[in-house]
Design a protein that fits this description.
The complex is a heterodimer of chains A (about 575) and B (about 190).
Chain A (H helix, E strand, L loop, with lengths): L2 E4 H11 L4 E4 L6 H7 L6 E4 L3 H13 L4 E6 H6 L1 H10 L5 E7 L12 H8 L3 E2 L4 H18 L3 E6 H4 L1 E5 L16 H4 L3 H21 L6 E4 L2 E8 L1 H10 L3 E6 L1 E3 L3 H9 L3 E5 L5 H8 L7 H4 L7 H9 L24 H11 L3 E3 L24 H13 L1 H4 L2 E6 H17 L4 E7 L28 H8 L3 E5 L4 H13 L3 E7 L13 E3 L18 E3 L4 E3 L9 H5 L5 E3 L1
Parallel strand pairs in A: 2-3, 2-4, 4-5, 5-7, 6-7, 10-11, 10-13, 14-15, 15-16, 16-18, 17-18
Antiparallel strand pairs in A: 1-8, 6-12, 9-11, 19-22, 20-21
Chain B lengths: L1 E8 L4 H14 L3 E5 L10 E9 L14 E6 L2 H6 L4 E10 L6 H4 L9 H8 L1 E5 L1 H8 L5 H10 L6 H11 L5 H12 L2
Parallel strand pairs in B: 1-4, 4-5, 5-6
Antiparallel strand pairs in B: 1-3, 2-3
Helix pairs in contact in B: 1-7, 5-6, 5-8, 6-8, 7-8
Classes of the chains: A alpha/beta (about 575), B alpha/beta (about 190).
Chain lengths: ~575, ~190
């Protein structure tokens, strides 16, 4: 019987069936569940790497040594991994290597709308673009075949609506190719200029050959219908086109890069009007136009947000406007720090001290929202430290004493360490706060080097952050419980005043991982003056009414932060 | 063809509800597509899941769009109101009558509409119940999602035994009895 699999589960299944032996990844929405599901196959070695660059290097090493391998990441992860990846396409692989990259059009959980197809072209890597979970599985197998046939790493690119949609999949058996022989070959694998000049020629020749072969590749197919309108499309957009324009002929591109020129020319010649309908950038459209073929698409859909069936119906069929999907004028419900979240107390104190906060990517980014409103900047993984350092070097020590960098334990391991080393090396004055909740939180709780557990939850070598900071030369390293507001405030005042580099580790496990067995709090209406003090921490369990506050017992986990803030003793454990 | 939109607040158990629905469709040989939300909005934000089930034509899109939903299954009053444009003419809203205040309301920068359910009732057929209380009576308030599925089951052409089979496949054994009771309470509501 077919199974209903998430696109990400189907990617993992495809890797399993294709005989993958090694998988390395850093979690990132919407890609995280791929490696989580890989970890369920005991035949595959899987790991969480500290970042995507390392993951790609691990996969490359495994592939060069003869094993089918993969790395997985969200779109911005490929930026981190771009350095090894852009040269891996020159060195080539030995056994197959696939990098799965999940884009996030509409930015459900991301900082930009970057289109991985552009990076595929820039790096000269073939790129597959599946439209369903069945294709996720099938395309993984095809990706390994292409990788080995053309001696290159291959990208399988997903978007949120493919990665996080469940559709039916026919399962197959696992077939494991023999380990390929590893032969020393410095002209391929040593990226000195003299060697890579030759490899660049090989890259160009390979790309021309694949582009030619793409004309007959099974996953690039024309679905002829009415010749009045033809649509070139791929990925999630294909699904919407099939529903909005059931009469149109469709050229479905399974291989997003390189493009099959003859097939596209044949299709264009066979239809009266040619549209290109694709999520994100005009990647196909620009190329098709550059070949002198008349077509349109992005002039109607734009490059922002997601395409949907109704949008296509509106723009290409002149259907009436569908109107907003949500009732207008209804209050928003943005995500919030959970009740009992260890980051809440930290952001409350940062706000109280009116510090400039260079923050980072993680749950603690939510400290930017009211009422905490405690974040000045958030750009990419690890940027908090570099940006705080830049502010100090631009504006001097007085600025440094009013500024902190805040990042989580996993983000620190990912790309905060080098920033901190830079501060130590370049005589920085400043304060870095590592909000250590012992987990990679926002992506759904993955282990990382700082919590000492591997991808299977088994104990492993644990990073000692204190010793690491000391070894780098950080003058002062303090560990504080972020639930102890008095202590936290005192330490923050001392460390920001210091004419040196200091690190404060606010250490308490994520409230969703270590359940707090505390009694819930309640408000004594006789003591509550309704002053609003407890409302400043933005706890979803505290509700303000006309006569005083009320604690929602189904939400409260008894962390006690509100009790520490109440001047009148109204908030107490029941 | 059934188009169902499940809306609620991150952490309320909407993902389990869509998983059970998907399993039910698979068991009965239907084509099915489910689109979920993971990541940031799971932290107490608005969450929306789409479930499409077809007994004839194959499905392509995993998304239910404006005016296409046969049923909106709402876990909270404000979210029911927010999702109203999804309901097709003649469609139904099933709502767990719970109010969870969003942060802009908690901080006083927005007001929770006092007429959420009136506005929903004006627009379409509405089934209202306190699923949290019913689930609590069954043993855990967390089973409110399955209480709502019980109500939904009455609007769909699958027997109660088929629903219970799907629940058995999706729920951990130690929570099975609570969930079956929760389903039955919803089914007989």
């Amino acid at each position: 019987m077919k199974q209903l699999l998430l696109g990400n589960e189907a990617i993992a299944r495809g890797a399993y069936e294709a005989g993958v032996r090694v998988s390395s990844a850093y979690p990132g929405t919407p890609s995280t569940e791929i490696n989580e599901n890989i970890a369920n196959y005991k035949e595959i070695y899987s790991e969480w790497a500290p970042n995507e660059k390392v993951a790609v290097e691990v996969a490359l090493g495994a592939a060069v040594s003869g094993a089918r391998s993969m790395a997985c990441m969200k779109h911005v992860g490929l930026n981190v991994a771009a350095d090894p990846f852009f040269t891996a396409t020159y060195t080539g692989v030995n056994a197959g290597m696939v990098v799965v990259v999940a884009d996030d059009p509409g930015m459900h959980s991301s900082q930009n709308e970057q289109d991985t197809r552009l990076l595929a072209r820039a790096s000269h890597a073939p790129c597959l673009d599946p439209s369903s979970s069945q294709e996720c599985k099938d395309f993984m197998k095809l990706a390994f075949e292409i990788s080995e046939e053309y001696d290159t790493p291959v990208i399988v690119r997903l978007t949120t609506r493919i990665a996080h949609a469940r559709t039916l999949v026919e399962l197959g058996e696992r077939e494991v190719p023999e380990l390929r022989e590893y032969k020393k070959d410095i002209r391929k694998y040593v990226s000195m200029p003299a060697n890579m000049i030759g490899r660049h020629k090989a890259v160009e020749a390979r790309e021309i050959r694949l582009a030619e072969d793409a004309n007959t590749l099974s996953v690039n197919r024309i679905e002829w219908a009415s010749r009045k309108v033809g649509v070139i499309t791929s990925g999630a957009a294909y699904n919407y086109v099939k529903e909005a324009m059931p009469d149109a002929s469709v050229l479905k591109l399974g291989l997003a890069y390189p493009l099959p020129r003859k097939l596209i020319e044949e299709f264009a010649a066979g239809v009266e009007t040619l549209y290109v309908i694709e999520d994100m950038e005009p990647f196909y459209e620009d190329t098709v136009k550059s070949w002198g073929i008349a077509c349109s698409g992005k002039d109607k859909t734009g490059v922002q947000g997601e395409l949907f069936m109704k949008k296509i119906d509106e723009k290409f069929n002149n259907a009436p406007e569908a109107g907003p999907a949500n009732t207008p004028g209804v209050p928003n419900r943005p995500p919030v720090l959970c009740p009992g979240c260890p980051h809440r107390g930290l952001y409350y104190i940062l706000g109280k001290l009116k510090l400039t906060v260079c923050s980072d990517i993680g749950c603690y980014t939510l400290g930017a929202l009211p009422p905490l409103s405690g974040v000045d900047t958030c750009v990419c993984m690890g940027a908090s430290i570099g940006m705080a350092h830049g502010m100090e070097k631009a504006r001097g020590h007085e600025q440094a004493k009013k500024t902190v960098a805040v990042l989580g334990d996993s983000t620190f391991c990912h790309s905060g360490m080098t920033g901190l080393l830079n501060m130590a090396y370049n005589r920085a004055v400043g304060t870095v706060i590592i909000a250590d909740n012992s987990i990679t939180g926002m992506t759904g709780h993955q282990n990382n080097p700082a919590n000492g557990l591997d991808i299977h939850g088994e104990p492993t070598t644990q990073l000692d952050i204190v010793k690491l900071c000391e070894a780098m030369g950080v003058a002062s390293v303090r560990v504080v419980d972020p639930f102890d507001l008095k202590e936290l405030e005192a330490v923050l005042r001392e460390e920001t005043a210091r004419e040196a580099l200091s690190v404060i580790i606010t250490r308490r496990p994520c409230a969703l991982i270590v359940k707090q067995n505390n009694p819930v709090y309640a408000c004594d209406p006789d003591k509550c003056r309704n002053c609003g003090m407890c409302m400043r921490i933005g706890c979803p369990a505290i509700i303000k009414t006309a006569t005083g506050v009320r604690i929602d017992p189904t939400q409260c986990v008894g962390c006690g932060l509100c009790g520490q803030l109440c001047h009148f003793g109204a908030l107490r454990a029941e | 063809m059934f188009n169902i939109v499940i809306v609620g607040v991150g952490g309320q158990g909407t993902l389990l509800a869509s998983k059970i629905l998907g399993q039910l469709a698979v068991n009965n040989g239907y084509d099915v597509r489910v689109s979920e939300v993971h990541g940031m909005s799971q932290r107490g934000g608005s969450v929306i899941t789409y479930v499409r089930i077809s007994d004839d034509a194959p499905l392509y899109s995993s998304i239910v769009e404006q005016g296409q939903a046969d049923v909106v299954l709402a876990f909270e009053n404000l979210e029911a109101l927010r999702a109203l444009p999804y309901v097709r003419d003649g469609g139904t809203v099933i709502v767990n009558t719970q109010e969870i205040l969003p942060m802009p309301v908690i901080t006083g920068s927005a007001e929770y509409p006092s007429d959420c359910l009136e506005r929903v009732r004006e627009r379409c057929k509405t089934i209202e119940l306190n699923a949290v209380e019913i689930a609590h009576e069954c043993g855990t308030y967390k089973a409110s999602n399955v209480v709502l599925l019980g109500v939904l089951a009455k609007t769909m052409p699958f027997g109660a035994d088929e629903w219970i089979r799907a629940i058995e496949q999706c729920v951990k054994p130690k929570f099975l009895n609570v969930n079956i009771e929760a389903f039955n309470r919803g089914y007989n509501y």
